[in-house]
Amino acid sequence: MGNKHKKKKSHLPFRLNVLFFAIFLLFSGLVLQLGVVQILYGADAQEEIDKTTNQTTKVPVPRGKMYDQYGNIVVDNEPMYSITYTPMKSPSQQLHLSIAKKLAEMIEMDTGDITVRDKKDYWILTQESPYEDRLTKEEQTYTDEEAQAEKSTPYELLLERIDVNKDLNYSEKENEIIAIKRELDRAYSLTPHVIKNEGVTQQEYAVVAEHLNELPGINVTTDWKRKYPYGNSLRDYLGSITSEGLPKDELDYFLSRNYSRNDRVGSGGIEKEYEMVLKGQKKQIQYTTDRNGNLVNEKVVQEGERGQDLVLNVDMELQKIMDESIRKHLTIAKQKFPIENKYMKEAMAVAMDPNTGEVLAISGQTYDEEENEFYDSGVRAVNAPVLPGSAIKGGTMLAGYDYGVISYGEQIYDNPIKLMGTPSKSSYQNLGLVSDIEALKKSSNVYMYHVGMRIGGDPSYQPNEKLTFYPERFQVFRNYYSQFGLGVKTGLDIPSETEGSGQQSDNFRGGNIMDLAIGQYDTYTTMQLAQYVSTIANDGYRVQPQIVSEIREPTTEREQLGPVVQSNNTNVLNRVTMDEKYINRVQQGFREVFTNGGTAYTYFKDADYDAAGKTGTAQASYWEPIRDGEGNVMEYKERKLENLTLVGYAPYNDPEIAFAVVVPYTGIVNGQYQTNKMIGRDLLDGYFKLKEERKEKESVKDISEEKKQVNEQ
């Protein structure tokens, strides 16, 4: 009996203990690791969570304004409503499509610029499975190597298989969506891009402003565009600004100077020449985004300031007189001789202060036969050289004096010159014995031929002789002309001036230097002719012509100009080598032309001012294209025409204004309407009339100020 029954022990508690112990170790390790992360790396982790990116965007400001010398606004900024888009980093195409659809319900958008490619991209976005529908499975999965072998990626293949006629027949509203999306796609990250600024109505502005919370990145603001109170007058020289951002051919240039791709910059003329002055100081906004590209904060770090203003030397009232005179007299000349003046379509003129180089007015007007109207082509006054004819004979005479081939007061018998083997050369009539002054007054070709022959190497002419000529003397003659600005750049402060052009030849002949002496060989621009006559009027000092007078700080006062930043002072380029007595002699001859029976006397004899100058008529050839019934050019037929020119200055004793007028391709006809002289007379009359009117206004103003002061006392 005393047997004990032993109980069988269970292993379950032991296993549970092991399991609990293991879990304890795991939790302990986890707690330890969390502690390490929290204590040692917590700050780094939090910094990564809070990581943001700052990016500064520069917002364009209105450009500087332009004024004429009397304070009249020539180029202004006109404010207008604008709808802009500032995208975050890497916005999706679907986001742009969504925004475009919403905006299209609020605004009207011009659809004239959308392309077939824009429509195809829209089609791809709006289809559920475009690639599956139009491409095989193999084509959808082309690798880069396969795509290169096929010369098309899947996207390019899909574009080719979209049927323009069947797939792209969109309504006007859908086209507006496409046009809006196109602008959204062109925007750069964190840079405001204009979606619409032309013709934004108050209602559109208000509706978009009300729904900005539904349109991420869209904003309503005020923009500006250039305004020209004087219409097209002087527009060629004022230039314009780009409408599509930076020009592609100058992209690197502007980007290296901190421009944005969608910035508007000067394109031609003063807008381009003074771009760095007119552009202003951009407003700078700092955008803060989180690691997902969401906008966290924005703040203005620098307020913007519109560009500096320019004061021009131009007198816009005189400019208006010049423009109207050219249009008026070209019209009359064509009406009086419609057949003979068939090819006469334009005229150019320049007026400047011969003492300072200030360009007072500069114009070119061209008649468009199809539109039956004139358009401004003023830049042709500086980049369209023509044969000047006798207008340059003052320079010829001074070259002869300085080279020692003619003497002060020398007389030469004016009758036809006959050289061996060449046709005779003569003046418009046999003038008999003429002095140097009479040669200018009566415009003797023969006198100038003798100057040319002598400079060329033949000291004395004998009938039927073979002319002695040294070709290197041709350049000697040209060098004399260049002292007056003929055949070289005048230094005008715009980027489109040309040097003029000579008749390029490596085989000069004696007859060529004779033609050069009467303005029948080398060609010059209207601006060069104006600088040439200014140099004679200014006692031999050639000054740089300048359109811009001053740069001034912008001001908020509408009727006032800001402080002067920079003044463009008179710049004397050179003094001609001729002795003062010879310059005085030519000045006297120029006076005879206008006041004592010379070639311009009829047109200026009753003027209230004493003017001087030189007329010119050059033989010119116009090669008319002869076309077949389908409009193809079959041949060119030469038409013999003339260029009419006139250079001058006034008053004679103390010149205030010098000018040049060029009228190319006029007909050759007895009693020809002298367009050049009519324009020149209008120009000088207008200048002195304006001067008198302003003088009277100033006197009235002074009297009013005196009365005001007396009353206050």
From TrEMBL:
Q: Which residues form the Penicillin-binding protein dimerisation domain?
A: 59-299
- Principal location listed in the UniProt entry: membrane
Cellular-component GO terms for this entry: plasma membrane
Which PANTHER family does its entry note?
PEPTIDOGLYCAN D,D-TRANSPEPTIDASE (PTHR30627), PEPTIDOGLYCAN D,D-TRANSPEPTIDASE MRDA (PTHR30627:SF2)
- Provide the protein's localization: Cell membrane; Membrane
Q: What is this protein called?
A: serine-type D-Ala-D-Ala carboxypeptidase
The record's comment on protein family reads: Belongs to the transpeptidase family.
Enzyme Commission code: 3.4.16.4
Pathway given for this chain reads:
Cell wall biogenesis; peptidoglycan biosynthesis
Reactions accelerated catalytically: Preferential cleavage: (Ac)2-L-Lys-D-Ala-|-D-Ala. Also transpeptidation of peptidyl-alanyl moieties that are N-acyl substituents of D-alanine
Q: Where is this region: Disordered?
A: 694-713
Annotated membrane topology: Single-pass membrane protein
Please report the stretch or stretches of sequence annotated as the Penicillin-binding protein transpeptidase domain: 348-681
> Source species, please?
Pontibacillus yanchengensis
Q: Which UniProt keywords apply?
A: Cell membrane, Cell shape, Cell wall biogenesis/degradation, Membrane, Peptidoglycan synthesis, Transmembrane, Transmembrane helix
Q: Does the keyword Cell membrane apply?
A: yes
Q: Which Gene3D superfamilies match?
A: DD-peptidase/beta-lactamase superfamily, Penicillin-binding protein 2a (Domain 2), Penicillin-binding protein, N-terminal non-catalytic domain, head sub-domain
